[in-house]
Amino acid sequence: MPKKSRGVTSQRVSQITPSGIRRFFDLVASMEGVISLGVGEPDFATPWHIREAAIYSLEKGYTMYTSNLGMPELRRELSRHLKYKYGLDYDPATELLITIGVSEGLDLANRAILDPGDEVIMADPGYVSYSSCVVLAGGSPVMVPTYEKNNFELNADDIEKRITDKTKAILIGYPANPTGAVMSRDKLEKIAEVARRHKLTVISDEIYSSLVYGVEHTCAASLPRMKESTILLGGFSKAYAMTGWRIGYAAASKEIIGAMFKIHQYTIMCAPTMGQVAAIEALKSGDNSVNEMVADYNRRRLFMVKGLKKIGLPCFEPRGAFYAFPSIKSTGLSSEEFAEKLIREEKVAVVPGSAFGECGEGYIRCCYATSLADIEEALARMGRFVKRCKG
Amino acid sequence: MLKEILKILESDARTTPAKIATMTGKPAAEVNKAIKKAEKDGTILKYKTIVNWEKAGNEQVSALIEVRVAPQRDVGFDSLAERIYRFPEARSVYLLSGTYDLLVLVTAKTMQEAANFVTQKLALIEGVQGTTTHFLLKKYKEDGEILAGGEETKRQPVIL
């Protein structure tokens, strides 16, 4: 009997769909004079003192592998940082792992805790990698719709309704990409309560934790009796403008870090050495740079949100990250149509909200980590466009 | 709030009060009032432009002059400093700790003109005990701005 013909690529990979707006990316890349509000990273280069520390380390020959867990000094500094920021005690030897950005941390976390068919509950709209990482780990994402009228916050009751005997974890990511929403402490406490009651792990992506405006970020692991069951994922990319360095971390119980470490050891070896050196410098003396950048983002945030409202796009007040998520429903276009027509007609790139889930339909993501002059010009162009749409 | 306004103006003096109001989330009238008050009480001294004169084809020389002086009874260094800073050639004048007392930044059209100022004006002031003149060879950074131009960030246009 001939073998049943099988595809070259795995069934698991075929389950995840490539980003539906690939075509749109290519269009942006082929055009000149585009103002992009479609980015997801700071417009600052990494603060000089951090770059200088890394350059020095290269000159001194720090070019070898580090400990698989990450440089001991970096883990010690990180432990101190988490203690100072949230009052959390993580043992640098067993409860911290340096990863290649939160991206790797997310992948490791899912692979470390999921068995085939296990379910992970998460918000819609949400960051694009969340559901794909769960699928790649053999799990099954369960989406909880969130709405502008509820500040795009996950609601504990909505989560509880979706818990089955297959549910393994709740994945949260606040401050949120794409909405800029933050999670209030009492809402988070209710979710923690649900997680404890059903013995679920909480995976918390806190990459944007330093970028909050006039509110305080609550770390999921810092809530009562949550440290043991939370996988805290953080990184240096957004707060310290270090996206290209690819350095993040996971903080969790010895058992979970041990499991994540096994995968990391065999697939990654260790995070880039120069990036780790830079991260040590960032933790040691990066506070001033972060504060200055946050103050700057805040000015642009206020400018962007007011500007969007002025041109007739109602916008939910984003309190974190560097995204505004205005509603474009009044134009009668779908978010993908809006984004594509906008780039063709006015050369402004935004990301359609539908890329982040069904509940993102009717919205667009506008990043305000862009110069004020560009934001101003982009708003003027969008204003013309919206006016034409509404006829 | 004033500090926030001043920071914005310090990085771009041409930011309009309306724009500052948007960026700070404060009413425009309030911002206007604060700026007017700061202008009046001398918190805001002046609005100026940082020029790369070399690029403009206008050559000029600058010199930093260390000045050792004998402080005077009752008035200390202040009255001597005033004698110096009233000369328009002195662009900046500072009192310093360390091996000398005053640091004077002088700009002039030619090296001769700057030298003349030092030898014929500054050094002759009563109480000035000695001067050391350092001519500037190259300006890399002025008032926080890199003269060769800053760096361009090269971001991908769309990232999720």
Please explain how this structure is put together:
The complex is a heterodimer of chains A (391) and B (160). The mean pLDDT of chain A is 95. Chain A is built from 13 helices and twelve strands. In chain A, helix 6 (128-136) links the parallel strand 3 and strand 4 (140-145). Chain A folds into two domains: 11-40 and 288-390, Alpha-Beta Complex (Aspartate Aminotransferase, domain 1); 50-285, Type I PLP-dependent aspartate aminotransferase-like (Major domain) (Aspartate Aminotransferase, domain 2, 3-Layer(aba) Sandwich), CATH 3.40.640.10. By secondary structure, chain A is an alpha/beta fold. Chain B is α+β, with helices and mostly antiparallel strands. Chain B has two domains: 2-40; 61-137, Alpha-Beta Plaits (2-Layer Sandwich). Chain B is 31% helix and 21% strand. Chain B has helices spanning 2-11, 17-24, 28-40, 78-85, 111-121; strands at residues 61-69, 90-95, 102-108, 128-135, 141-142, 145-146. In chain B, helix 2 (17-24) packs across helix 3 (28-40). The radius of gyration of chain B is 21 Å and the shape is extended. The mean pLDDT of chain B is 91. The chains are: A alpha/beta (391), B alpha+beta (160). The A-B interface holds A 19, 24-25, 28-29, 34, 36, 38-41, 43-45, 127-128, 295, 299-300, 302-303, 306-307, 349, 351, 355, 372 and B 4, 7-8, 19, 22-25, 151, 153, 155-160.
Question: Can you give me a brief rundown of this structure?
Answer:
The complex is a heterodimer of chains A (391) and B (160). Chain A is an alpha/beta fold and 391 residues long. Helix content of chain A is 42%, strand content 13%.
